[in-house]
Amino acid sequence: MVHLIVILTGEHSLVIWESFDQAVKVQCIATCELLVLELDQRFPNHELMNVLGIIYPQYSLQPNCESTFVDHFALIKHHYCISKKLALMASEF
């Protein structure tokens, strides 16, 4: 038996003529890929999650915490901070 499967993925839609077993497999793969994409967009990557460990007291118990803190803090600043040039108005003084 042949089925028409339409996969909607936001910007694109994909139409596949497959058997039922293959259609289910294709749909499951597309769903998993979409789930992984959503998770990637909503949560920081693994390296950044490890660096965010500096907020816990256990971080200071590590033998090399003082030498790695600067690098870890720089990674956090690079990911979350946005530099802006501010122009002060004369009336603000």
Q: Unreliable segments (pLDDT under 50, ≥5 consecutive)? A: none
Query: Care to count the β-strands?
Result: 2
- How does the overall form come out from the CA principal axes? flat
Domain unit count: 2
The proportion of strand residues reads 15-25%
Rounded radius of gyration (Å): 24 Å
Alpha-beta classification: alpha+beta
List descriptors.
single chain; 93 residues; alpha+beta; 2 domains; two-stranded antiparallel ribbon; 2 strands; flat
Q: Could you write a compact summary of the structure shown?
A:
With 93 residues, the chain is an alpha+beta fold. 48% of the residues lie in helices and 15% in strands.
Give a description of the structure.
This protein has two domains: 3-42, no CATH class; 46-80, no CATH class. It is of the alpha+beta class and 93 residues long. It has helices at 20-42, 46-51, 65-80, and strands at residues 3-9, 12-18. The protein has a two-stranded antiparallel ribbon with strand order 1-2. It has three helices and two strands; from the N terminus they run E-E-H-H-H.
